[in-house]
Amino acid sequence: MIEKKMFNPRLSRFGQDKNLTVSRSKNLWLIITGLGFLIFGFALTAQAQTPLSPAAKQVLQVYLEIVQQEKPDFTGFEAKLGEKFYFAEREHSKKEDTRSCALCHGDDPASIGQHVTSGKTIEPLAPSANSERLTDAKKIEKWFRRNCKWTIERTCSVEEKGHFLKFLYSF
Ligand code: HEC
Q1: In terms of CB atoms within 10 Å, which end of the chain has fewer, N or C?
Q2: Which residue of 147, 149, 167, 168 sits with most ligand 1 atoms within 8 Å of its CB, as the best mutation to test the pocket?
Q3: CA distance 100 to 98
Q4: What is the total count of domains within the chain?
Q5: 62 and 89: one domain?
Q6: What predicted TM-score, i.e. pTM, was given to this entire model?
Q7: Per-residue pLDDT for the chain (171 aa), expressed as one digit of tens each?
């Protein structure tokens, strides 16, 4: 096999012209390094921020307007507060258990969760890990209504929902 390669006319042509070989491989390395940086750059920006879906943008804008009607100096929703809300554990008034959003959606919203009563798998909540998430305003509201009632025995406030969505977009 090696012997065969040595007599490969294409290779021996390069062999004869050493300068040609060197400049070609140099160019190749430049291209590879350049591409590497490009891909790395894209990966960095993609990780820094997942772009909001049109539905999420719209929902967050409406939430913001509602909150600002009551609190004119409210500056915006914060992922940190959403995180706190996500992990907060609350004792249920009738059922003797402690509930949180993380109970079904898991400690990492970018990973798969598991429904605490049915045992069914729940796809990741973070849009960076699941592109179908937060793409439909009706669906977002429907699940907020259901899950908030189950978890905290009331509807979530608009402010809580805004922080929560910001948190999901921080992954
Ligand atoms: C008892 C289990 C359970 C708990 C606890 C739970 N969820 Fe969910 N959640 C679900 C299920 C099931 C779905 C829908 C499954 C699917 O779409 O894959 C869902 C979906 C959602 C969605 C829909 C996102 C989208 O656009 O697809 C939101 C938002 C959400 N949950 C918010 C919350 C919040 C906020 C809490 C805590 C107050 C919470 N969940 C607690 C089970 C739960």
Answers
A1: N
A2: 147
A3: 7
A4: 2
A5: yes
A6: 0.78
A7: 455 555 454 544 444 555 555 566 777 777 777 777 666 665 555 555 789 999 999 999 999 999 999 999 999 999 999 999 999 999 999 999 999 999 999 999 999 999 999 999 999 999 999 999 999 999 999 999 999 999 999 999 999 999 999 999 999
